[in-house]
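User: quick one, sequence for these tokens?
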């Protein structure tokens, strides 16, 4: 532990709590974070649960679904580290048993909020389809629901499903082909009144370490997921992007505009970006 790095923690009743996603796609964002963040406590969970815990004040900063930042005017984006894609994302897929235009019912991965919103936007804007939705609990497979289509995210979306589907959408690919912009799935966020000290820089530095170690992360994580290290490394290096640049911000603003248009986010929420110095 690097206690001398963050002396402002001494005045706190408890260490800062950092919530991070447990999926492979977020591992580069938390490489060495436990050491870089000094006395802060790192907690891993699913994106939707992190969002709930941040909202409830149980976390001080968390990697949450981007849609949650667009729904709460009290949140600020506190790092230029993010989980984004500039094309096929591989780990966010909509599987349809019927042609897309005929979808009337949709099961949404319980771990998803941003991807669930993105799927509904794409269906509505491109096909005029607004299906009835239900949650697919974590740990359930596509065959556990009879809906016309199923949205899966994270590590389980990377594995081929056991049943055949008429259409499979990679949502990152569909968004980029349609808009020409990247898509941001998750960002680090905190309440506007929450002072994080040097944690903001630690989040960026952790990302910088992670993007330099894709091969090592892949070798470490692939056996846990039942995939090859080669697939895991290719996924991290070519399907994902971890910096929130100008194109990503433009994609985020378009996502917000479409979410508001479709009644999936409130009007008037301003995106606030705290400054973060990064080595990248």
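Assistant:
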């Amino acid at each position: 532990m690097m206690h001398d790095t963050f002396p402002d923690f001494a005045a706190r009743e408890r260490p800062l709590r950092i919530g991070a996603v447990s999926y492979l796609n977020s591992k580069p964002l938390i490489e060495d974070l436990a050491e870089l963040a000094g006395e802060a406590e790192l907690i891993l969970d699913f994106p939707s649960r992190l969002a709930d815990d941040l909202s409830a004040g149980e976390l001080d900063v968390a990697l949450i679904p981007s849609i949650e930042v667009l729904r709460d005017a009290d949140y600020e984006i506190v790092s230029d580290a993010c989980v984004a894609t500039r094309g096929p994302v591989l780990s966010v897929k909509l599987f349809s048993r019927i042609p897309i235009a005929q979808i009337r019912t949709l099961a949404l991965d319980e771990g998803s909020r941003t991807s669930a919103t993105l799927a509904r936007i794409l269906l509505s804007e491109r096909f005029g389809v607004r299906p009835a939705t239900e949650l697919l609990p974590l740990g359930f497979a596509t065959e556990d629901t009879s809906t016309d289509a199923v949205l899966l995210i994270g590590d389980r979306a990377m594995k081929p499903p056991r049943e055949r589907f008429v259409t499979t959408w990679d949502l990152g690919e569909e968004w980029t082909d349609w808009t020409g912009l990247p898509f941001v799935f998750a960002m680090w966020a905190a309440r506007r009144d929450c002072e994080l000290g040097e944690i903001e820089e630690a989040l960026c530095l952790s990302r910088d370490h992670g993007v330099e170690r894709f091969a090592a992360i892949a070798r470490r994580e692939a056996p846990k997921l039942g995939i090859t290290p080669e697939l895991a490394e290719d996924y991290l290096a070519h399907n994902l992007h971890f910096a929130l640049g100008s194109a990503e911000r433009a994609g985020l603003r378009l996502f917000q505009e479409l979410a508001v248009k479709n009644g999936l986010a409130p009007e008037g929420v301003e995106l606030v970006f705290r400054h973060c110095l990064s080595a990248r």
